[in-house]
Amino acid sequence: MRSAAVRKAREGAGRAAKPAAPETLTEQAYRQVEEQIVTLRLQPGQFLSEQALAAGLAIGRTPIREALQRLAREGLVVILPRKGILVSETDPRKQLLVLEVRRELERLLARLGAQRASGEQRARYRQIADGMDRAARSNDDIAFMRLDRELNLLMSEAGHNDYAARAMRLLHGHSRRFWYLHYKTAADLPLCARLHAAQARAIAAGEAKRAEEATDRLIDYTETFTRATVAP
Fold first, then answer.
1. Structural domains of the chain ordered from first start
2. 101-133 in b/e burial notation, b at 16+ Cβ within 10 A?
3. What is the mean pLDDT of residues 92-99?
C-alpha cells in the first residue's frame, strides 16, 4: 500500500516539475548532476570524472563541463587545476550562515511572488502544494526533494527580481543537500513538506503577509533542525 502511495507522490512531483520549455543539454546535465550531489549519490569529497558522468547520463562532455562549471559557481563542486573536480564538503555551522541569508531573501521572494506571480505561476504553486501534501502522507524523500527544487525555481522566477533570484540560486543546493544528509536523524519530513505547502499556497493566493509568515515558520523549523546537527 505504501509503494502505491509513493508511486502516486512521485508521479505528482513529475507533473509539478515539468519545465515550461524544453531543457538544453547543459540544463539536463546540471539538473541530473545536481540531484546526484544533493541526494548524496555523489558523496562529499568524491572526485568526479567528466567522462564517467557523460557516459552515465548519455550526455556529451561539453554540456557536462558547462554544468560542472555552474555547480562550481554555486559551491557544490570544487575545480582543482591539474587534479580534478571534487564534490564540496558540508559544515553545519556554515549552513547556519546560509540560513541567515536565505531567510531574508526567501521572505522577499515570497512577498514579491504573492504580488507579481502570473496566473500560470499561481497554478504551479498550487500544484506544488498538492504534491507536497502527497509527499508528506507517503513520507517520500525523493518526491519531496524534487518538489522543493521546483518550488525554489518558481519562487526565483515569480518574484521578478533577477538580483534576488541569482543570490538564491547560490543557496538552495546547499540547503537541500544538508537536509538530505541529516533528515533521517534530525528532521520531520511530513512536517517540513506541509510547511512548504503552506508557503506555496499563501503565495498562490496573493497574500503577501501570510506568505512572509509561512516563510518564517519554514525557516524557523529549518534552523531548529540545523542546530540539532551541530555538536555541542
1. 20-87 (1.10.10.10), 92-228 (1.20.120.530)
2. ebbebbbbbbbbbbebbeeebbebbbbbbbbbb
3. 86
